Every structure is written in structure tokens, then in C-alpha cells.
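Sharing a chain and its predicted structure for anyone who wants a worked example. Both blocks are below, sequence first, C-alpha cells second.
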Amino acid sequence: MTAADTRLFDVPTPVERLLHLAGQYTRHNDMLDLLAAEPDPGAAPGDDALAGSAQQLAYDTRTAITAIRAERLYASTEMTEILARLGQLAYLSHASAGHDVRTARDLTALAADASVGCAAALAVEMRRRGAMATAPDDRLSAERRTALAEIARGHVTVSILFDRERAQSRRHNRVRLSTLRALEKHHLTGRDPGSAPATYIGGPPQDRFRLTPAGITALASVIALPPPPRRTSPGAALRPAPARPPPVRSH
């Protein structure tokens, strides 16, 4: 985590740190994708910005591991798996710095997803041990929770088609444009214009949605929790059905 990123949080929790790390991996992978789309993407990153980004990610992942260990949580099977997975991410990120663009991209392809998965598993363990001090953000409906998680995983972009914005997300977890706009309005998300690969060959880059520091904190407070009950307005409360009159018997 860079000095600028550290200032985003006073004292980031381990879960927040992992969600931020997922965003860093997505940004790194987007850079690789845009470079791979250029005419001659075969050169190894070497000492350029991409190699530096990969090395920084490896360092930040190891820092996240250190922060998790500092919590002194019970060495459960789940915790062992979290630390092992993060160790793998650090190794793959470090190794990717010495490969060509396409190979480097393959090595970190699942890193954002894995970071969010580790954040969710860690949140479960911390709640189980009473180590989660943040109360759930009650502004977040089930739909908004899903949207924040999908953004954290790097699955949400916005593109322009026929002069209209279109949200792009995974088929089984679609995120509506209206939901994205609501999250933007509450300063939980932002967008990096033209930072994501195009949806078709030769097309313009897309805008990548990302979590703001406030969005990271909000998602960290609810990640891996069951969805909240659906709210109903007072007038929409179900009313008991009127009693039916007793049947008339014929004599």
C-alpha cells in the first residue's frame, strides 16, 4: 500500500485492507489488458511501470498477511486457507514481473476475486471471535451489497452504446445502472474513465467502477452477512384477508 493509499484510512482493518488490495489488482490487470490490446504487446515488463506495479502488489499482499497475523486469531482451518491463498497471490504477483504481458496477466487474473473471497472469509472469522468492531451499514440493501461486492471483484464497468450508458457485469450477478448511480450519489463508488478494456475489438476503453474509501468501509461492515430483510412501507403491510361468510346449507 502506497503512502497516498495509507492516508485513505486512519487505521484500516484487515478486511478493508484486502478489499483495497482487490481494487489494486483490478487496476493492475486493466493496465495489462490495455497494453495487450496494442499492436506489439509481447515485450516483457522488465523495469517499467507494470513491473513496478506487480512488485508493489506483492509487497502490499505480504503487508496484508502481516496485518492479519497481528490480529492473533485462532488458527482455524479457514484462517490457514486465507493466509495460504494470500501467500500464493504474493508469489504470483512477484513472479509476473518477469514475464511478457499476456503471461503476466494470466498469473494475476484471479487475484481480485481471491482477495475479496479472503476478505469475506476473514470477516466471518473475525465476527466469530468478536473482533469486528464496525456495525453493519444499514443503508445497504441486498442489491447494493451485491453491487459493491461485484465492483470490489472488478466485474463492473460502464460503456457508451448508441449515446447511452450501459453497465457491464457478470450474467449471474447483474448490476443495474440505477444502482451504480445511487452508490455514486452516496460517494461509495467512483469511476476511472477509460481505464478498462473495450467490450469488442477496436472499441473504446470502458470506465471501471471502483470502491471509494467510504465504499470499502461500508462493504467491509456487511460482507459475508446474510442479506437484510426487504423493507416494506407502512401502507404496503399485508392485511389479513376478510373472513368468508359461513356456507349456507340447503335443507
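Comments welcome. DSSP finds nine helices and four strands in the chain.
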